[in-house]
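Ex. 9. Protein: Copper chaperone PCu(A)C.
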Amino acid sequence: MTNFLWWRTGLICMLMTVASAPFAAASTGEIEVGKAEIFMPQRNASGTGSKMTIYNRSDQPLMIRAVTGERFRQVMLHTTTYQSGKREMHPVDHITVAAHQKLALTLNTAHIMLMGFTRPLQMGELVSLILHTNQGSVTVIARVVPMSIR
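Predicted structure tokens for Copper chaperone PCu(A)C:
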């Protein structure tokens, strides 16, 4: 009976960790990432986008210089602009979050493009990404969700 209680307690702790993982990740306590999502790629697509909100509670600007993830061969930082009513994406060297500010990354603004899947993504799957910043690395756990530009 004692082994069952330990097993059940461990399972509950693991489920609580997994359930909250997509909504917050921190490296120093001053940088947090909320509601990280990766869009389920369209059929035969070689890439997809993501969205998340980055909270910079530090006294200095946060510069995201690169993103890596073992599920992707290439990850790029992009911004979106609108020219003559057409949406255009442009690669950028970094994305900056001002001190004591938050920045929502969406497909309609600055965002992360994930390309070259090492294996297919599954709806609801949790995927790890690492944001490489001027304040250190931040590990983010993102959930794969249906494509929706909001």
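Check your answer against this statement. The two ends are 49 Å apart (CA to CA).
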